[in-house]
Hints:
alpha/beta; binds flavin-adenine dinucleotide; FAD/NAD(P)-binding domain; 2 domains; D-Amino Acid Oxidase, Chain A, domain 2
Amino acid sequence: MQYELSHWEYESFYRDIDVAVIGSGIVGLAAALHLKALRPTMNVAIIERGPLPVGASTRNAGFACFGSMTELMDDLTHMSEDDVLSVVEKRWRGLQALRQLAGDENMDYHGWGGYEMFTDEEENIFQACCERMPEFNEKIGRITGHPEVYRVADERLPKFGFKGARRLILNQAEGQVNTGRMMSALLAKAQAAGIRTINGLAIRRMHDEGSGVTLEMEPGWTIQVPKVLVCVNGFARQLLQRDDVWPARNQVLVTKPIPGLRVEGCFHYDRGYIYFRNLDGRILLGGGRNLDFEGEKKEDFGAHDRIREALTNFLHTVICPDEKPEIDRWWTGVMGLGPVKKPIIEQTSANVTIAVRMSGMGVAIGTLVGQQGAELLLKA
Ligand SMILES: Cc1cc2nc3c(=O)[nH]c(=O)nc-3n(C[C@H](O)[C@H](O)[C@H](O)COP(=O)(O)OP(=O)(O)OC[C@H]3O[C@@H](n4cnc5c(N)ncnc54)[C@H](O)[C@@H]3O)c2cc1C
């Protein structure tokens, strides 16, 4: 919809912005809150193209996780140990920052642990994990303070009732959150702090003039603001024309309530490409991107029939083979990936700072990244 900006709209809603944060996901909200905490008199506005944040933050699985053993072992084949441990540390610190900011009760945090599931055919991978477990417990214990982060938890398999699962490794320091409640809590905090969130306004282009940044909006008009912090994660390719961030879509489902469900915790399977958890007596299941990497490299939301079929099959044959629960809802979310598992927190011009590329771990790292982005903007 194209329309001109009225005098009243401009004067009352868009004129006195000191910092415009683009994107109201976890990163944008954490950044705006941090700016307000550090500079209470600063006029901070968040500009969001959706009626709600519509990227990943309201569409994820809510795993409060920081590293399963196979993921970290795989990372060690192409990253230095220091880099791998530094990613784990960021996720751990990020989770503590999120818990402090949103509050465990407000986001229904449960420390039920994160599991990795192995089939018969994966016995050799499981054994390789067992061999390195003492070393991992020692190194990751130093980061988390947990005396035994990883342990074999095969004894829990009968309780959960999975079919075809042979082994379980439990990460005892992981948890889960209710994503909707987490985002409601952050949005309420932002409102209480006097941060204006302007929804339904997409930024088409931006230009740093040196004296400030001109933002070209979708309705066809422009405003100027002194500073901009861009927090658009998987949409950075569109807005910033960067080729070191790309979108990665994920399919997610939630079942109808399953009477007597015994599954409790967050579960990773197939190197983390498939993930599921319990959610108020239901199963939330997502992933399957590895079935069509190119097909899911999209900014658009939408179904991928073959992946949805594979996830449904996994639900009915492995997770709940006896109940074969009905699916209540499907959706998609868009993550921001890149050639390395590192967020980009950069000042890209005199008045523009960016905090993007959460590598599919923004629940874990997003709060910290937003806070670091805010601090960098204040230094610039
Ligand atoms: C299905 C799925 C499951 C996931 N599960 C987990 C998990 O269990 N644990 C975990 O740690 N992480 C998980 N993630 C990743 C995590 O959700 C993301 O890393 C995190 O939410 C990213 O937050 P963000 O604020 O950077 O980006 P987003 O939440 O994507 O926010 C970016 C915002 O920018 C807005 N925007 C984009 N372009 C413009 C524009 N031009 N103008 C104005 N606004 C714009 C978008 O509408 C969006 O609201 C998952 C992601 C997905 C998709």
